[in-house]
Amino acid sequence: MKRYDLRSYLEELDNRGDLRRIKEPVDPRLEVGALARHACESYGEAVLFEAIKGYPSFRMLGAFESYSSDPDYRMAKIAMSLGLEPTTHPLEIVEKLAASRSVTPVAPVIVESGPCQENVLLGEKAVLSALPVPLLHSGDGGPYLNTIGAFVMQTADKSWTNWAVARGMMVDDRHFLGATFSEQHLGMVRSTWGEDQRIPIALFLGARPSVV
Known about the structure:
By secondary structure, this protein is α+β, with helices and mostly antiparallel strands. It contains 5 helices and 9 strands, in the order αβαββααβββββαβ. The chain has a 3-stranded mixed beta sheet. Strands 4-7-8 form a 3-stranded antiparallel beta sheet, with no helix packed on it. The two termini are 17 Å apart.
């Protein structure tokens, strides 16, 4: 099995003709969401937006784990995101996912630096509006800071660290909010903290495709 990071995964999609690079300027307000949704619903390639209006140093990505544009292997993108061959049968994908529940976890490695620290904003510069947070649908209550990134939360006694994909909506420059329903893992983790306690939480975008 291959262990793709996001960059190498996109390179592989590009080699297979399953990535479309959009170089024309695209507005994060509604246009990005419309094009990504169309790609998902029409068996389109993953879409990499390389020119975001108002955010010249950013790129955005959509439809990278939806059905493939390859008519012979519609599950190719999903298979590859898990490190499998693009020709892997859907039932084998399910079997691999089920088998992974009993695999010994890989121990984390602590490093001094990494790609996530190439660009750091601190203090007054650390505002959410520095990011091209997209308004995806006209009926949404606001722009979503997160749709497919992973939230990381830990129980109060640190016995369980959970990663979860959940939506997070931007409120203002310093705040965003997300749902922590009691039936979901984020809600279960939250319930271990007192009502007046501040809960540390991290959100990371651009993880390995297998994470999300």
